């Protein structure tokens, strides 16, 4: 079942770039769902090098700041959903 999500134009541009790279790598057409699944798999691995590579997308943040913000976000979600 499909769902609709809203993203900014900049995020959409970044997702399209990743989509193009995945299509080249896989040799087949991919869609936004494939891109999001790919990014989620990277997140689940929690590889610090991958997090550092994303810093360029978010100007003025160091890898450490990005990791700290993510930890805070996880804590907020736990409190919000009682996990």
- In round numbers, the mean pLDDT is 80
Strand content: under 5%
The helix content, as a percent range, equals 55-70%
Main sheet characteristics: none
Please identify the structural class as seen in this structure.
mainly alpha
Q: How far apart lie the N and C ends? A: 26 Å
Question: Which parts are unreliable, with pLDDT below 50 for 5 consecutive residues or more?
Answer: none
The outline comes out as: globular
| Radius of gyration, taken over Cα atoms and rounded to an integer in Å | 15 Å
Count of alpha and pi helical runs:
4
Protein name: VapB-type antitoxin
Organism: Acidianus ambivalens (Desulfurolobus ambivalens)
Task: Describe, in plain words, how this protein is organized in 3D.
The chain has 83 residues and is mostly helical. The protein has one domain. It has helices spanning 9-26, 32-45, 48-54, 63-81. It is globular. The two termini are 26 Å apart. The mean pLDDT is 80. This is VapB-type antitoxin.
Task: Write a concise keyword list for the protein shown above.
single chain; mainly alpha; 4 helices; globular; VapB-type antitoxin
Short synopsis of the structure:
With 83 residues, the chain is mostly helical.
Summarize the topology:
Blueprint: H1 9-26, H2 32-45, H3 48-54, H4 63-81
């Amino acid at each position: 079942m499909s769902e609709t999500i809203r993203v900014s134009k900049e995020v959409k541009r970044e997702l399209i770039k990743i989509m193009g790279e995945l299509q080249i790598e896989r040799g087949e057409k991919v869609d936004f769902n494939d891109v999001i699944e790919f990014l989620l798999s990277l997140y689940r691995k929690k590889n610090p090098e991958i997090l550092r590579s994303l810093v360029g997308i978010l100007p003025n943040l160091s890898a450490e700041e990005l990791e700290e913000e993510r930890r805070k976000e996880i804590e907020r979600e736990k409190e919000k959903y009682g996990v």
